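Render this sequence as a predicted structure.
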Amino acid sequence: MLKIEYDEAKTMAHIREDSYEEGEQAGVEKGTEIKLIEMVCRKLSKNKSVEQIADELEENIDNIRSICEVAQKFAPEYDKEKIYESIKK
């Protein structure tokens, strides 16, 4: 027979740690995406083409195109948070 001791405090600490790490990773990913949106919007405001933006940022053209399509709806203010939320829908 196997006897296992269950320590609720230790288990809860592990769950909190895992949740914190997941939240932290999600925050980093969101920040990275918002930074890309911000750079794309700056280049759009300078009337650069999708191809130029993708080339200058060294990003996938399809990814840049999708950001540009959404960002155009928010021109000329380019609210990066609203753009991010629209892309994530």
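Summary. The radius of gyration is 21 Å. The mean pLDDT is 92.
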